[in-house]
């Protein structure tokens, strides 16, 4: 066998690994967990996994859109937490209706997005620095709003108790089902479809990818870079707000720091998505698979009684593997 044939064979293997490697790993992990715990491979457990990753996936969709435009929104976790506290405050402390509280939550997410736009687009501060500042700003604002306390029905307020409560209709957003499918899962699927169409099949999405590839070339081609980047951060803020509203409905309270975990998980899902089917760029379907992958791993480890502190390590290892697949095995990096 000639050296050229060997090289060609290795190249084909690398190409296959680049395109399908992550899906093969996901299938292998699923088989291992199913053999270890037969209950893992059931429809009911699949719904549990999907519901557990729905919030992460929705937040990650917003991160993906910001990354497509060459940005990086580090404020999404703080945005989720701020939305949770504002929504809970509106219902419990102000005794407003569920629909009004949802409006307050969406407004909270857009407020975070507006600050990001002012810092990144108007003031031209680098994305990472600007959104990091926004993260700390709204984490602190959420604490100030509630004096550092969680919000729950019947909580003490002055000499009395809070007048409001979480209505049954609002609670269904987090725990209700439609045709046996949890509402957050339906929202995840709808947003995934809409986000995929937006990025892949519209001029706006193609413009975002052009900006992410080379903002100056996109500007010279007539694309309004500032406007598109502002809209990308608005989408990211709205996704985080929707996730925060669903999380509030699921928890039935406003917990301080409720959104803290979602930054790293959503970023991990978006980056894992780079390695799905060799996309090697931010994409909604890859992000959805990345969120599912993380959910499968966490659920499987939990069912196998693995210690909770090992889950973070496994998620980190998963992210490293996906980055190796995406950036080391990519055709542009192979020699």
From TrEMBL:
InterPro entries: ABC_transp_permease (IPR001851). Its main location: membrane. Pfam families: BPD_transp_2. GO terms for molecular function: transmembrane transporter activity. The chain crosses the membrane at residues 20-40, 46-69, 76-96, 102-123, 135-158, 178-199, 230-249, 261-277, 284-302, 308-329. It is found in: Cell membrane. It comes from the Bacteria. It is a multi-pass membrane protein. GO terms for cellular component: plasma membrane. PANTHER family: ABC TRANSPORTER PERMEASE PROTEIN YPHD-RELATED, ABC TRANSPORTER PERMEASE PROTEIN YPHD-RELATED-RELATED. This is Monosaccharide ABC transporter membrane protein (CUT2 family). It comes from Actinocorallia herbida. The lineage of its organism: Bacteria, Bacillati, Actinomycetota, Actinomycetes, Streptosporangiales.
């Amino acid at each position: 066998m000639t050296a050229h044939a060997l090289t060609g064979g290795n190249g084909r293997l690398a190409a296959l690994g680049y395109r399908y490697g992550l899906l093969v790993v996901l299938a292998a992990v699923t088989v291992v967990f199913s053999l270890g715990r037969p209950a893992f491979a059931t429809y009911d457990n699949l719904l549990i996994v999907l519901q557990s990753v729905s919030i992460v996936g929705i937040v990650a969709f917003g991160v993906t859109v910001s990354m497509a435009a060459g940005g990086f929104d580090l404020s999404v976790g703080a945005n989720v937490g701020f939305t949770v506290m504002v929504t809970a405050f509106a219902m419990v402390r102000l005794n407003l209706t569920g629909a009004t509280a949802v409006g307050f939550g969406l407004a909270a997410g857009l407020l975070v997005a507006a600050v990001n736009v002012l810092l990144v687009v108007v003031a031209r501060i680098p994305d990472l620095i600007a959104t990091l500042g926004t993260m700390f700003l709204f984490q602190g604002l959420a604490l100030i709003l509630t004096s550092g306390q969680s919000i729950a029905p019947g909580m003490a307020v002055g000499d009395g108790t809070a007048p409001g409560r979480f209505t049954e209709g609002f609670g269904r957003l987090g725990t209700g089902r439609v045709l046996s499918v949890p509402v957050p899962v339906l929202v995840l699927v709808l947003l995934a479809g809409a986000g995929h169409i937006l990025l892949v099949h519209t001029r706006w999405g193609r413009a975002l990818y052009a900006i992410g590839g080379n903002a100056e070339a996109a500007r010279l081609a007539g694309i309004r870079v500032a406007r598109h980047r502002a809209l990308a951060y608005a989408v990211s803020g709205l996704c985080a707000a929707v996730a925060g509203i669903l999380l509030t409905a699921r928890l039935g309270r406003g917990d301080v720091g409720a959104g803290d975990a979602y930054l790293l998980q959503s970023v991990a899902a978006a980056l894992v998505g780079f390695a799905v089917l060799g996309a090697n760029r931010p994409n909604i379907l890859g992000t959805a698979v990345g969120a599912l992958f993380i959910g499968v791993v966490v659920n499987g480890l939990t069912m196998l009684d693995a210690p909770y502190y090992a889950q973070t390590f496994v998620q980190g290892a998963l992210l490293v593997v996906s980055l190796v697949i995406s950036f080391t095995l990519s055709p542009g990096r192979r020699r």
